[in-house]
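User: Hey, my collaborator sent me this sequence without any context and asked if I could get a structure. I don't really work with proteins. Can you help?
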Amino acid sequence: MINTLGVVGAGVMGRGVAQAAAQKGMRVVLLDVSDEILTAADNEIRQAIRFAAMLEKKAVAESADDVFARIEFTTDLGKLVNADFLVENVSEKVAIKQDLYPQLDNICSSDCVFAVNTSAISITRVASWTQRADQVVGMHFMNPVPMKPLVEVIRAHHTSEATINRAKQFLAQLGKEAVVVNDMPGFVSNRILMLTVNEAVFVVQDRVSSPRDVDRIFKGCFGHKMGPLETADLIGLDTILFSLDVLYESYNDPKFRPAPLLRKMVDAGLHGRKSGEGFFKYPNLHQAVPNKPKTTTVVEK
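Assistant: No problem. I've predicted the 3D structure and written it out in structure-token form, which is a compact way to encode the shape of the chain:
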């Protein structure tokens, strides 16, 4: 049983993990590098928990405030000392993770499992930065975390069966199912998804189609709930670019070369939903349920 969860990184994914865990009764220590980031996370999680409570059809035994009270916001790594399980969600940059993990290794208890929530970085490589390689596992959550019932769990070279079972137990507490795969950069989901998204960007870049019509084809012809470009906006175009860069470097395969338009948009600050604009515009960014996105004019000129 996981009682105290450490969550490192209070961005979109970290907030979602913290919210999901608190709603299932766990105490959560949510850590990031600045009070500004944590204040934003505080506001977003508080709103999301209250919105979830309003949508709950059956009687709720506790208030949204009771759920929120289980989350501690901090910039102090030392607060993770009592974590039973840790989920790391920092930026998809190898240098940041490589600096972080030796610190976590020294602070966290010897039996704490480290779950790496990454889109593409090798879990075996991350484990090599610790003294507990058998207790490091990949855990690729999908966005929005509280609403997605399935999680891709990645077994690294040294990951023990006990660690896999602990990861499954943690996810079961969250009401989620684990699918265990082996460790190669991108795993299953992003090794395939990033290629799809990148090619969709190339289609827009080559003026074959508009972003909206690309997504209409995937939704109308294939039954997808979201098209590849709306999915990219939800994930974050900066995260998509980081992931493609990692895949390109890892496999030395030109098929993972990021579309120049994608890099240009990231450089321009068009990161998707979290910035208010990507391939589509999101004018009501801070509403609990954003309105249907409008196609951005920046891409379609």
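In plain terms: The first helix runs from residue 12 to 23. You can pass these tokens on to your collaborator as they are.
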